[in-house]
Amino acid sequence: MGAWRNAPESTAPVRGVVGRAGTGSVFDLHRWAPSPDAARFVEHFWSVSWDRRTEGPFESTVITFPAMHITREWGDDDVRHGVSLPNTLVHGVVPQVFRTTISGRGSVVGARFHTGGFTARFGRDAADLTGRVVPVDDELFGAPIVLDDDVASAGAALDSAVGAFAGEPDATYRALTPLLDRMREDATLHRVEQVMAHAPWSTRTTQRVFRRYVGVPVKWVLCRYRLQQAALEIESTPGIDFADLAVRLGWYDQAHFSNDFRAMLGWTPGEYAGRFGG
Predict the structure, then answer these.
(1) Domain HTH araC/xylS-type: where (predicted)?
(2) How open is the CA angle 222-218-81, to the nearest 5 degrees?
(3) Tens digits of residue pLDDT in 83-142
(4) Where are the domains of the chain?
(5) Among candidates 99, 107, 134, which has minimal Cα distance to 118?
(6) pLDDT score recorded for residue 277
């Protein structure tokens, strides 16, 4: 496992984290690299810890990536995400945004899988878990997994358990990964047909692969990356031109952009800038 005892991450705007500049005093966020064995499936490990006993509850919002997580969670609250604590959980892809209220004292240690990595590691359809948070069952790792309520211990044990996979990841996952990387990094990809020009499969097969490995359609992934980038630029750029932003990120006009943005977050771009803008 990579060194986890690094300093908490900067509170500069971060892609996917809503209002990161205002959360530095709310919780401590750490990320660290997986071991080589776990890195075949896991992008990074992370932990969040908080103590809100004197400040009161805080609602945290994340514009999630199309990625699945396994977490170990504990704290003063007896129930989180509708399940009892302490617990080890699987988080499917979140269709809207991830909102959770943190209160008292608590911690979470998590593995964020590469998009498609959860299915490649465990053989389970991602679509069956989309929008769900469920306890890890005994069959997931082939035997019950025991994680301590301690960041370092839980992180190391989770890294070891995920990395304990004989053989190589399957061919579909290996072919999917570069396509997903292009979708994430290539700002010129705005439409499904553009993605299909780079896909190693037919349109029908590609959509089937996305259902099984990603849990959401190709169009959803494209839109989510654009909305993440839009929120990041609004937080980072004072006085940003929304019409220009909409065109650069592939919307037909500012109205369509505003509608999509509000549908996801509940705020218009202007309202978001007023709350979290640089």
Answers:
(1) 173-275
(2) 85
(3) 999 999 999 999 988 998 999 999 999 999 999 999 999 999 999 999 999 999 999 999
(4) 20-163, 170-278
(5) 134
(6) 78
Write out pLDDT tens, residues 14-54. Answer: 777 787 665 556 888 899 999 999 999 999 999 999 999 99
d(CA 137, CA 88): 9
Answer whether CATH 3.30.499.10 is correct for domain 170-278. Answer: no
- In whole angstroms, what is the distance from residue 121 CA to residue 163 CA? 9
CB 254 within 8 A of CB 241: no
Cα 216 to Cα 95: distance, rounded to the nearest angstrom: 8
Q: Please give the structure tokens belonging to residue 264.
A: 């996801």
Cα angle 193-261-59, degrees, rounded to a multiple of 5:
130
**Element housing 228 (H / E):** helix 218-236
Q: Comparing C-alpha atoms, which of 93, 72, 59, 213 is closest to residue 145?
A: 72
Helix axis angle, 218-236 to 269-276, nearest 10°: 50
The percent of the chain in helix, strand and coil, each rounded to the nearest 5, is: 40, 20, 40
Q: Distance of alpha carbon 101 from its chain centroid, rounded?
A: 17
Element (H, E) at 232: helix 218-236
- Sheet with 87-91, edge to edge strand ranges: 27-32, 42-51, 105-113, 69-75, 87-91, 133-135
Q: CATH classification of 20-163 is 2.60.40, yes or no?
A: yes
Using CA atoms, how far residue 276 sits from 46, 182, 203, 232, in Å, is 24, 29, 39, 10
